[in-house]
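[Meeting: bench + compute handoff]

Bench side (C.D.) handed over the final construct sequence. Compute side (W.E.) agreed to return the predicted structure before the next meeting so the bench team could plan truncations. Sequence as handed over:
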Amino acid sequence: MHGPGHGGHRPEAGTDRGYNRPRVHHPRADARDLGGPGLIPTQPVPARAPIGSLAVVLVLIVLAAAAGVGLAWAANPTPNGPFTKCKTAPLLAPHQYKAAPATCIDLNKPYAATMLTSKGNITVTFLVGAAPVTVNNFIVLAVNGYFTGQRFFQATDWYVQSGDPTNSGRGGPGYGLPDEPAPNDAWVPGSMGMARFPAGVSGSQFFITKSAWPGGNPAQAYNHFATVTVGFDIVGQLTTDDRILRIDVKKS
């Protein structure tokens, strides 16, 4: 998945050992903005477990399966209140949907959300007027528990990124979003935007800026759909060890 790209050219999915992976493009001499989400380091192959420990592993698997029903309910809550009609499109595979969700929010009303993370809470205000499709999509995914448990798989000196159900940087909901460029948009610290490419991950992967966009605003269109209003200090503390516990959305 690509987040903030480089000026003057479209971000492209990188490859690493046969996988389409997000990558940082090193800026050319004529590029006027820096790259965003970068490559996820390859994880070392775990050592084979001793045979004597397999019984313990099997017991843990059984216990995890027994708890699965409760965990599944927590991760996939039923939307209620003003979000009762906010349903995802038909499910094609785990975390993969046929299309972006239909509009269910009132585009004339303000919305906010509190993102509970392992470091603390972050409150954001949605920019409904600037990016209505993106805001609706994020809210639908949030109230259906899509982001619950996801890791901030990328954390750099100027942004953090999440929204990947595989926590690898390569996952997404299976669809993309249309560009919703805002005129005279300013990517100030605390800006929340969607990744761009590839389309199959750009429907859910998002980033939050910790500082102004290096080199000025991006040349490419990135859907700027929310702004951090409370908890900006928490954003600065997030690392790749941190996760989203849940996201609570509120209609003002």
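W.E. noted at the follow-up: The chain is about 15% helix and 20% strand. C.D. will use this when planning the next construct.
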